[in-house]
Amino acid sequence: MTVAKRTFDAVIVGAGGAGLRAALQLSEAGLKTAVLTKVFPTRSHTVAAQGGVAASLGNSTEDNWHWHMYDTVKGSDWLGDQDAIEFMCRKANEVVVELEHYGMPFDRTDNGKIYQRPFGGHSQNYGQSPVSRSCAAADRTGHAMLHALYQRNVRANTQFFVEWIALDLIRDQDGDVVGVTALELETGEVSIFHAKATIFATGGAGRIFHSSTNAFINTGDGVGMAARAGIPLEDMEFWQFHPTGVAGAGVLITEGVRGEGGILRNAAGERFMERYAPNLKDLASRDVVSRSMVTEINEGRGCGPDKDHVLLDITHLSPETIMKRLPGIREISIQFAGVDPIKAPIPVVPTCHYQMGGIPTNYKGQVVVPKDGEPNAPVVGFYAAGECACASVHGANRLGTNSLLDLLVFGKSAGESVVEDIQSGNLSLKPLPADAADASLARISRLENQTGGESVAEVGNAMRRTMQKHAGVFRFNTLLKEGVTAILDVAERSKRTEIKDKSKVWNTARMEALELDNLIEVAKATMVSAEARKESRGAHVRDDAPDTAEFPNGRNDNEWLKHTLWYREGNRLDYKPVTMKPLSHDVEPIALAKRTY
Ligand SMILES: Cc1cc2nc3c(=O)[nH]c(=O)nc-3n(C[C@H](O)[C@H](O)[C@H](O)COP(=O)(O)OP(=O)(O)OC[C@H]3O[C@@H](n4cnc5c(N)ncnc54)[C@H](O)[C@@H]3O)c2cc1C
């Protein structure tokens, strides 16, 4: 197969919120920028974001970035890096107002300001009472945001390669990143995108689980590509289960529903969150609400004939409020649960939603790895932003609306870093290694030429079942141990996948097979990192690390206040310190404390 070569200043993989925000920075600076995307940009998963984007604008209730920073550090169960968190919370107002100026159609308050609603874990005055911090466009915030960013990129002449799937990262003999290989879905052609800078913005990998709010395209491609290229993956044991997926379907019901006053009830009609989180109740952070729901179900207080879900009740809200603020939710509920929420409560269960870990980056969007005794040494030419990256602002648990903010802040800062590094001459076009496309071509050839191998669909199902059973909302020592063996076994099988019907090799079948290679890396990293972390923290809660006086909530800061790094080579783990020091010398660190809501 011949391999065409294209050369750019920068190549960005991913056209969701993070990729588009980064691209805008580059194109507006006049750099020749290519954006590769598996789907049309405005179909990226960001389009599905419902509830809003966090910023302490204080339009409805008093607010400031110090409170936002405190909530984010506490939400992360102190695993988030405080320099990056300070950076994100301080930048929030600026990037949201910028978006407003790009034409984002936010909802408005009566006096014309951006409408804001309360969200889980966001509070006034260091945890005292809920605050309205989520800037929203009804329950279609991501949709509005993605369209505003896409249009702005069209204006800036960003060059899009739509329905192209990036296959592998290219590193030279120094380990520097010099581009990617990619397959065009229409023609099956493989190309090399040679660039001074490569930015990954490939989104999440929620499809490693059976039950997920994520789109089918969320297959962790960037994370898998980075792992295959020898980059360690950070904090992959931490996955967020969103409390309110539609029971049976998994489709998301935004937390904004509880922000607007929705209440969770068990079979007895009781508002059970009052028992688990007396202050913030239904608006406690997501890990806390999800575990409370599973506890209610496990203790026999679930609803329905199988007692396998709880109810989300908004029947006390006026139909006008529901139609104005939550129209999409009403549609989802009618379509997927057969329930009109104006008249009856929605059946919900916790569902896999968000990956807190990912490719390690600093607050500038540079990918960083341990090197020569330095825990965070930048990899030349490589940047990442959005859900595929771990900055780390979400630590062990992300607060709702902080992801859309993460895309804007770190998409922009990754873009700024690239512009700076190219314009200052720090980055130049390095030669491609002679074997730049070999690994990708070998994978494609295996899929088509191997016989007697495994079916992609069956191996994928085995992976999803294994992850769901062994690494769910609650984690058990024995299940995790068995899970490691099971997932390594599935990974072995994935090396022998092939496209079964050789007479009809569609590029979509190729794509599914190549995506599975990436999902498997994410699944292995998750299980191995989770088995090794012998404490409970944030979304990672183990039966053998319970809440005790010595270890509040099961968290063990003496041994485990550190980031996990998983290396694909040798299936090896390493750790690096959490940055407890904020970015600015005059900002006080948020001191360790027990997390209660
Ligand atoms: C249903 C739902 C609702 C949510 N609601 C909210 C909310 O209200 N507020 C909030 O803060 N967060 C929310 N989140 C989380 C948030 O939306 C996501 O974390 C965020 O949108 C991810 O953005 P991204 O730019 O990193 O990736 P995505 O938007 O997922 O985009 C990934 C891009 O990468 C491309 N891509 C991937 N792999 C390849 C490849 N191999 N080659 C080429 N292109 C590739 C895709 O085509 C796509 O363009 C929600 C998530 C879901 C699933």
Automatic annotation (TrEMBL):
Q: Cite a single Pfam family from the UniProt record.
A: FAD_binding_2
- E.C. designation(s): 1.3.5.1
PROSITE patterns (alphabetical): FRD_SDH_FAD_BINDING
Which reactions appear under catalytic activity for this entry?
a quinone + succinate = fumarate + a quinol
Q: Which GO terms describe its molecular function?
A: succinate dehydrogenase (quinone) activity
Q: Give all residue intervals belonging to the Fumarate reductase/succinate dehydrogenase flavoprotein-like C-terminal domain.
A: 461-597
Pathway in which the depicted protein is active? Carbohydrate metabolism; tricarboxylic acid cycle; fumarate from succinate (bacterial route): step 1/1
Annotated localization: Cell inner membrane
Write down the superkingdom of origin: Bacteria
Q: Where is the composition biased (Basic and acidic residues)?
A: 534-545
Q: Of which family is this protein a member?
A: Belongs to the FAD-dependent oxidoreductase 2 family. FRD/SDH subfamily.
Its protein name is: Succinate dehydrogenase flavoprotein subunit
Q: Which organism is it from?
A: Aromatoleum toluolicum
